[in-house]
Predict the structure.
Amino acid sequence: MEIRGAMVALVTPFRDDRIDRPAVKKLVDHLIGNGIDAIIPCGTTGESATLSHQEHDEMIEITLELVAGRVPVIAGTGSNSTKEAIRLTRHAAQAGAQAALLITPYYNRPTQEGLYRHFRAVSEATDLPLIPYNVPARTGVNLLPPTVARLAELKNIIGIKEATGSLAQATEIINLCPQKFLLLSGEDMLNLPLYAIGAQGTISVTANVAPRLVSGLYDAFAAGKLREANLLNRDLFDLNRILFVETNPIPVKAALAMMEIISPEIRLPLTEPAPESKTQIRNVLKKMGLLN
């Protein structure tokens, strides 16, 4: 299965502090039915930091079962422990995932050499295609383009989810890496600019809420319909902004609850959004015609 296009960083629905399987099914069917090209469970948006190891494995297995081969599943398997990242990635491979997304090790702030060796160790432990995820605002460390270029030489590191917010850094990655190496947007507000410099897709938070618009934007750009892509990008602007009014995934889970797709349940230390944030989120959803 080809990995590119409009992909979604899946939320993890909860009910009574357990993974809500019916809600996962409702959301997965909603996404695939509206043109999403791949689904990524157990990333940042999936609250991976507060999933137990058992729940992490369970969510990947549930997603694979419910997707049922309709689109690729890219399992979030990152950790700040290299051994744990290897275990999670091996499980994802055994479960049948098409690829794995691995956040850079957070909190312990490795050097560039440490980052390289971390991803190399995971690469050597599996044949699964791997995509490092670089989001310095979350992790405290930046996977720099020369290090990305070193990783691109490894047999199964196929791309990077880039969320630095820097078009210059993204361009340098494109310049340094082989043409087949995937650059994927990790920041919804920059999807269109990143497509313009060579990104082959997005791993999107907004796609949980507006999959048809996010997929339409990618498809329009890929077809050379630049005016249509620009108009869709404008249509998405307010939603992209409001879904980060508080820490992700607080707003996106609230939005999906307002749309009656999942419950609003979220795990501490994250909390439900403040009343003023809820009002702003609801207003944008109403304006876009996304509420029943």
Observations:
- The beta strands are 5-9, 14-15, 18-19, 38-40, 74-76, 99-103, 130-134, 159-162, 182-185, 201-204.
- The chain has one domain: 5-223.
